TrEMBL record:
It comes from the Bacteria. InterPro entries: ComplexI_NDUFA9_subunit (IPR051207), NAD(P)-bd_dom (IPR016040), NAD(P)-bd_dom_sf (IPR036291). PANTHER family: NADH DEHYDROGENASE [UBIQUINONE] 1 ALPHA SUBCOMPLEX SUBUNIT 9, MITOCHONDRIAL (PTHR12126:SF11), NADH-UBIQUINONE OXIDOREDUCTASE 39 KDA SUBUNIT-RELATED (PTHR12126). This is SDR family oxidoreductase. Gene3D superfamilies: NAD(P)-binding Rossmann-like Domain (3.40.50.720). Residues 7-176 form the NAD(P)-binding domain.
Length: 248
């Protein structure tokens, strides 16, 4: 199978490319660095020529709802137009567990992902939407974005974090399976407090920073009380945090 990975040079994209190649697929890496800009549609026609399935793990980090929605809607429309022209039969997109939960509406990024899901569903291209919980790598990313020298702010959140590699494997399997609509949510095997998870990761890395748990404005209470947790029909997949740390 020929698979195009949109956002193929990012953290998740690289893992998806590796998993797809290991499974014997012909992979096209599509990103701005390879001449593809999904926000304008530039380069998409060439990247999707002869492609059987598209795995979209592209990203646009912003907490402005207006910017997030505008980006993800425009990108989804550009991608669908190129897929239709190229005869692509399956679009797989990675999303976030509970991104459409009204309790989390204060997070503009979540509104953008929910808008992306709606656009993909309405595109006319057969699709699979796979939502995952936060990744273990989320802790270190948060510290890099909210770190101030020896201090780092980490949001108070309860989640069932999952390894990014586990998500990548599930995305490739979804592409192989064929269009499934909304797939079962994917989560890790343990309910964890994100500040404590992050502290454990940094200790293992030998990083000396004082982590300060903070409540995010707006949806902070919901995040602390379980709004990020998946439903009973979700799929849990390892490794555990300790197993993941042992392999890294």
């Amino acid at each position: 199978m020929r698979i195009a990975v949109l956002g193929g040079t990012g953290l998740m994209g690289k893992l998806v490319v590796a998993e797809a190649e290991a499974a014997g697929h012909d992979v096209v890496i599509a990103a701005r660095s390879t001449g593809v800009d999904i926000s304008t549609g530039a380069g998409l026609a060439g990247a999707l020529a002869g492609v059987d399935a598209v795995v979209d793990v592209s990203d646009h980090v912003t907490n402005s709802a207006k910017k997030a929605v505008a980006f993800f809607e425009a990108a989804a429309q550009n991608i669908a137009a190129a897929e239709n022209a190229a005869g692509v039969k399956h679009h797989v997109v990675l999303s976030i567990v509970n991104c459409d939960d009204p309790r989390l509406k204060a997070f503009g990024y979540y509104q953008g992902k929910a808008a992306q899901e709606r656009a993909v569903s309405a595109s006319g291209i057969p699709f699979t939407i796979l939502r995952s919980t936060q990744w273990f790598e989320f802790g270190e990313k948060t510290v890099s974005l909210m770190g101030f020298g020896p201090l780092a702010l980490v949001p108070r959140m309860r989640s069932k974090p999952v390894a990014a590699k586990t998500v990548a494997k599930a995305l490739v399997q979804a592409a192989e399976k064929g269009p499934s609509g909304r797939a079962a949510d994917l989560a890790g095997p343990e309910v964890l407090e994100i500040p404590e998870m992050t502290r454990k990761i940094l200790r293992r890395r030998g990083t000396r920073q004082l982590l300060i748990p903070v409540s995010m404005p707006g949806a902070g209470k919901a995040m602390r009380s379980g709004a990020l947790l998946p439903g009973a029909d979700s799929v849990s997949a390892g490794p555990t945090l300790d197993e993941w740390l042992g392999s890294h």
